[in-house]
User: What shape does this take?
Amino acid sequence: MQGKGIKAARSRLAGNARRAPVSTVPADVLARGMQSGADANGRTQGPSPMNPLPIAPQDRGFATSRLHTLDADEHAACLKEWGQCYDQLSAGRFEGWFEEYLFGNVQLFRERMNREVHETGDPWVGSRTIAVPLEVEGSGRFFGERFDIDTIITLKGGEALDFRTPPSHEILAITADAKALNAYALTVEHRDIEAELNGSHTIPATPERSARLRAFLATAMASLRETPETLQHAQTRKELEESVFGIVVRTVPESAARATRPSARARQRLVAKARDYMRAHIDEPITVADLCSALRVSRRTLQYGFHDALDLNPVRFLRAMRLNGARRELKHADPACDTVADIAARWGFWHLSHFATDYRSMFYELPSETLRRSSAGT
Assistant: This one.
């Protein structure tokens, strides 16, 4: 299926478990911007493994959901755009928690369950899912392969799911439009991720690689949980989507030989072109992916060039440009109409506390102080 749609799916935990050092999802219920799927009488419609393969819904901008469940079928229904069925395997009262954020070509979700279940069904056609556990008690089996705290799993859209979960677990996951993800990987990293993952259900992982993916997802969802309204801004959605695609590509170990490093003169020409592009789009919060696409080079080639020409990486250079752009807007803003969060989001800063920290480090004042000065006309 073509990209540009919000692609939906959902997922999970509790108990004495081995746990990575990040916080768990609260058990309260909050729904913003979307319904979890109900009929005319308000009853939740659960998926059936006999249903046809699910299809991604049309673009709705963004949507979020947080749910507390007391039944395995109820929990399976959270993944509304999948064709899921959960069979409880271990005895005891079932309890689960579910959290989801959908935007652009991406779905981030987190699910927690306190009982062992067998998950079957189908993700939506045209998707690619990558997931890592946050907490595990015991171990499970994903397509027959051992699933524990450092396992990174993957599933292709349209492929039948087969997951016997641990007795208790919590998982963080990304489901993305596979074509959009692969287009990013080809443009920015010159890698064919779908070809590299073809036929795989687990990704070779080290504790460090698993921890990096886990930390990114936990941080992203914590930020969206605190300020979901930042997803109203198209630039924030774009920046976060590219960050998600970037962490997926970095999570998959490279199998191809590394490209030859370009000459010093070629790197200098490349940086000059990059700076010309930035100047021509000075009023736009451009990203590294935009530069790679415009210049037809990989992220690594861009990094080589900036390191040699400016002794810094392109991410840092672009962040500085975006911070300066946000500062200029703050200096001319109307505090009665504009907020720091809205201006930061327009410049692609989806994590507000990180933006404030970076802004203060760069300009030795908080963004709120700049905004206050604008109202004083100074």
The longest strand covers residues 127-137. The CA atoms of residues 223 and 354 lie 10 Å apart.
